[in-house]
Amino acid sequence: MSISATMPAVVPYLLRLTADPSVPRRNELFGLVLVAAALSAPTDPGNAWDLAVSGPESDHPERALCRAAFAADAAWVRRLLADDELLAGLHLDEGERASLAQAAGL
Predict the structure, then answer these.
(1) CA angle, 14 then 101 then 31, to 5°
(2) Based on the number of CB atoms within 10 Å of its own CB, is 20 exposed (0-12), middle (13-18) or buried (19 or more)?
(3) Digits of tens for pLDDT over the chain (106 positions)?
(4) What's the whole-model pTM score?
(5) Alpha helices, H only, the chain
């Protein structure tokens, strides 16, 4: 799995839509946000497995651009992570929370 070059442009919209309680199926949108955050994680150049699976950062500039989009909208990420109504039925583990927070530079 990987993210496309369009994902950095989509992240701001996904965050805002997911934060809006009137949007139907926003828990599914939040799933997309979590996947985008996880897939935008930087590759550890010292980890051969990580490099084999994800490839070097230099080959995937969309990951850094996606992290920049999350960081630019870190306030929306904080809002989502504090949204008890949204999170109530999702059973997020600490790794998922950490991945999203890391993508936003929190």
Answers:
(1) 40
(2) exposed
(3) 667 888 999 999 999 999 999 999 999 999 999 999 988 888 878 888 878 887 777 778 888 999 999 999 999 999 999 998 888 878 888 888 888 998 998 8
(4) 0.85
(5) 7-19, 26-39, 48-54, 61-72, 74-81, 84-87, 94-103
Chain centre to alpha carbon of residue 17: 14
Report in angstroms the alpha-carbon separations of 106 from 46, 65, 89.
24, 16, 24
Residue 2 has a CB neighbour count (10 Å cut-off) of: 11
First to last CA, the chain: 24
